[in-house]
Design a protein that fits this description.
five-stranded antiparallel sheet, 21 strands, globular
């Protein structure tokens, strides 16, 4: 795994905008950064792919354990939503995607470590699937990439299509946020390519007619993909209506378990010492002197505290933490010339499908961390 500094393509902004990528720069700072790329070989990619598949296998076992043992209190899931979760798990309501955040330096003799699983509302999908693929083909068409995201998304929608029974599949997010809207629009386009009838409705415009959720044209919403967190949905006024309908939600409600940091100590409890997991506990660090304190619900690196040898070295602010924290063994991201990359390994339709890399000059990845493309050279 190498970090290579290169020249950006002439007029790269126009090139990515032509593909529909209009948030390449955020508040004047570069988000899509093609002045560097990370180089991998096939042995490294094989290790990452196998690790991702193994982690997903472990996570599914952990979901089953939580449901069978009724451990929902650990996840601060409201009691009235528990039957919904159990039903979605029992009926195998499909999941399209998720992204593992992994710390690894590319040494195939050192196991990659899972930091967390973005299981409900992961973003950076469009740039991982489309933008970096077009970049690598223009940079050097002989180079490869760990990237079958596009094909696997379409394949996943094709598998779901019969369950829709020719009904429309709605897509939704807060469309005032470009990143959310582009990611959802991309998934909607893939569903259309899979032969599914689709509609878009912004989250604030989802209606309720007393019996069903509706779109802006008062059409019943039978199936809907939402880029909107389950924990937000449950705590809003319209959230109680979810329990009154047979609407199918993607991502499904059983993903509430995996998107919660409480899954990390559960995984360690079930699979202690597993080479791809980090030691993690509820309530206190259990004697660890170097660890990371993470809220059960947290996004974009908010409310994270890093403790090294008993001393707080890094701390971020935010609005999370009321529900409690978990304590995870400190696994520093590898450093390349003062930059720290986190590997985002995608699961599409239950299979490892590709990678996107986020990089920053801090050990904590946040919403301003740069997206860096990658290439497989040998």
């Amino acid at each position: 795994m190498k970090r290579n500094v290169i020249q950006t393509r002439p007029n790269w902004q126009q090139k990515v905008e032509k593909l529909g990528f209009n948030y390449h720069t955020l508040d004047g700072a570069t988000y899509w950064d093609e002045s560097v790329y990370y180089e991998f070989n096939y042995k490294q990619i094989n290790t990452l792919e196998q690790t991702t598949n193994e982690l997903y296998r472990l996570c599914l076992k952990a979901v089953d354990y939580v449901i069978k043992e009724n451990l929902f209190d650990w996840f601060f899931i409201p009691e009235e939503f528990i039957p919904l979760i159990k039903k979605s798990w029992k009926h195998n309501v499909p999941s399209i995607y998720g992204r593992y955040d992994i710390s690894w330096n590319g040494d195939i003799n050192t196991p990659p470590k899972m930091l967390e699983f973005n299981a409900d509302t992961p973003t950076s999908l469009f740039e991982a699937s489309v933008i970096q693929w077009f970049w690598v083909k223009e940079f050097n068409e002989q180079y490869d990439q760990f990237n079958s995201i596009h094909e696997k998304i379409i394949s996943s929608w094709k598998k779901i299509k019969p369950e829709l029974k020719n009904k429309s599949l709605h897509f939704s997010c807060l469309d005032e946020f470009p990143e959310d809207f582009i990611n959802v629009s991309y998934l909607q386009d893939c569903a259309t390519q899979a032969g599914i009838k689709t509609n878009f409705v912004s989250v604030p415009h989802i209606g309720w007619n007393g019996q069903n959720f509706t779109d802006e044209e008062e059409n019943k919403i039978s199936h809907i993909f939402k880029l909107y967190p389950w924990e937000w949905m449950m705590n809003e006024e319209f959230g109680q209506h979810i329990l009154k309908t047979n609407t199918t939600w993607i991502e499904p409600s059983w993903k509430m378990i995996l998107s919660n940091k409480a899954i990390l100590p559960v995984l360690w409890k079930l699979f202690p010492g597993h080479p791809n997991l980090l030691e993690t506990y509820f309530d206190d660090p259990e004697g660890m002197t170097s660890y990371v304190e993470k809220p059960l619900f947290s996004r974009e690196g908010a409310n994270i505290t890093i403790i090294e040898n008993g001393i707080v070295t890094t701390e971020t602010k935010g609005e999370y933490g009321d529900e409690g924290f978990v304590y995870q063994q400190l696994q520093k991201l590898p450093e390349f010339d003062g930059n720290f990359p986190v590997l985002g390994s995608w699961v599409i339709g239950g299979q490892a499908a590709g990678m996107g890399i986020r990089e920053t000059t801090s050990l904590i990845t946040d919403n301003f961390s740069r997206f860096i493309p990658h290439a497989i050279i040998s």
